[in-house]
Amino acid sequence: METQVDEILAVSTDYYQVLDIEPDATAQEIRQAYIRTSRWCHPDKFVPCYPPATECFQLVKEAYETLGDPISRRKYDMARFTVSVIQHDKEDDVEYAGDMFERMLYQAYEDMMAGEFQALRALLCAVRGTEDVDNYLLDRMEVGLRNVHHVLTRTHRCYTAIRADLLQLYELQQQLRSLSYFNVVGRIRLSMEICKIMLTMTLRKDTGVNVPPTVERTLMSIIGLLDTLKEQI
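^ that's the sequence the OP posted. Answer follows.
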């Protein structure tokens, strides 16, 4: 087990590697990884005492507390993204999210990705009723979308293809923030438009990202539903 402890400490700057999970891991997968890892690396498991185990156990706990909270996880992911951008060649940085404005766009997009999907989930429940909404399917679709959007925003070709969409999303988000909370209809319409753009981005052919047919059909169905609802509001 000492070797495993040393391996975790060697990747201490990457919480996903610390817990041995993928960047698109669900909340349940993060918790399971934490329980699994914390059990074997607990300092009491080592006889005689192995001091690095204490540091490893604290690191695993810190990784879980960060990734287990949606807000702190988004901040952490943003920091990881910023570091990866800095490590790119300077020539690539000119076009690929290399300045503060691009990072601002990305951060705004990440916030919308979390908030608007929850809004979309609530909208579907309100329209179809909670009994007609498959929460498991929505959970898996959210993970799938995060995985696709992870590629879209971190690949040079994809980022270039969706940059105009990101700009439009940013502008809509600013409009949404400027609206009065009492302007319910206006806020709903803007939220629906934001959701539609985010879903449409996933289906763009010029990104080179292949979306599974089942996911594509589900997304097209939701986009159609959003168009129908928008006309009725």
